[in-house]
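Renewal narrative, Specific Aim 1. Our central claim is that a sequence can be written position by position from structural information alone. The example that follows is taken directly from our test logs and has not been curated for this report. It begins with the structure tokens describing the chain, in the order in which they were read.
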């Protein structure tokens, strides 16, 4: 355990040094196909570490609680810190308001992923039915972390402003650059419900979405209730605040995350592993 805590502390110190020297983690460098290459190298590294576990004690140690428990404590602490502090693009607390690009956070979770991968492989290769909960738990952690990390660079987030009766094919990214996402949005009607004090209670847009492959999808988009079309999630984002209920345009946020299904798969595996663990460890009835 002491070694595990020392390694975790060392990773945090190394991360702080990298943060000072290099700045925040630049996830855009891992965009496709670089993330695929990294995934292949990662799987190869896990296989090599496992194959050498009998010759190198450190590799064997990585599959046991002495490595896992301290790493879990560090990861949980940093994650709780991220949940307590507002995560914003600009402003906020230096470094800690952009935890996903904070080197100590990234290094600790990468260490967690490597430990979990070795543990999952170890349980998988000594297959027994009672190993299923551990395989699902550890493999789920690996799948979720890898997909969320490597897929981060492939996430697309655009803003599209559509006026009533005018299909719009163009959208802007965070840098103000123009993109054509492969679909157009036409606003038919903007609706707003107000509280008695005139504050917005609900606002939504009735729209038609036209895709390049000739598909037309109609629906209503409102806050936290997106419309899904061709891998894009279309969210109601804003409107003409000066006109309020009479707004003649809506601003939509378009989000595409091609790795999100793998993240959900990893989370589902962890939940299934926890359920199996409860079932396998349930006390058996005592025979009289």
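The sequence written for that structure reads:
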């Amino acid at each position: 355990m002491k070694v595990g805590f020392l390694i975790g502390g060392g990773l945090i110190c190394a991360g702080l040094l990298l943060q000072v020297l290099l700045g925040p983690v630049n996830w855009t460098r891992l965009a496709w196909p670089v993330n695929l290459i990294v995934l292949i190298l990662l799987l190869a590294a896990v296989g090599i570490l496992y194959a050498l576990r009998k010759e190198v004690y450190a590799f064997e140690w990585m599959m046991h609680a002495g490595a896992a428990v301290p790493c879990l404590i560090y990861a949980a602490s940093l994650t709780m810190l991220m949940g307590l502090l507002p995560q914003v693009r600009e402003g906020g607390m230096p470094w800690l308001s952009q935890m996903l690009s904070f080197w100590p956070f990234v290094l600790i979770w990468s260490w967690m992923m490597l430990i979990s991968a070795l543990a999952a492989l170890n349980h998988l290769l000594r297959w027994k039915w009672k190993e299923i909960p551990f395989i699902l738990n550890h493999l789920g952690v690996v799948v979720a972390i890898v997909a969320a990390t490597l897929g981060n660079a492939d996430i697309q987030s655009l803003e599209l402003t559509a006026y009533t009766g005018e299909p719009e094919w163009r959208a802007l990214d965070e840098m103000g650059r123009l993109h054509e996402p492969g679909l157009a949005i036409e606003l038919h009607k903007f609706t707003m419900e107000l509280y008695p004090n005139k504050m917005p209670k609900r606002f939504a847009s009735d729209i038609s979405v036209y895709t390049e492959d000739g598909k037309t999808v109609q629906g209503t988009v409102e806050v936290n209730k997106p419309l899904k079309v061709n891998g894009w999630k279309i969210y109601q984002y804003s409107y003409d605040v000066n006109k309020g209920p009479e707004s003649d345009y809506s601003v939509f946020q378009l989000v595409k995350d091609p790795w999100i299904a793998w993240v959900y798969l990893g989370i589902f595996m962890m939940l299934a592993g926890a359920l199996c663990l409860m079932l396998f460890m349930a006390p058996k009835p005592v025979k009289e």
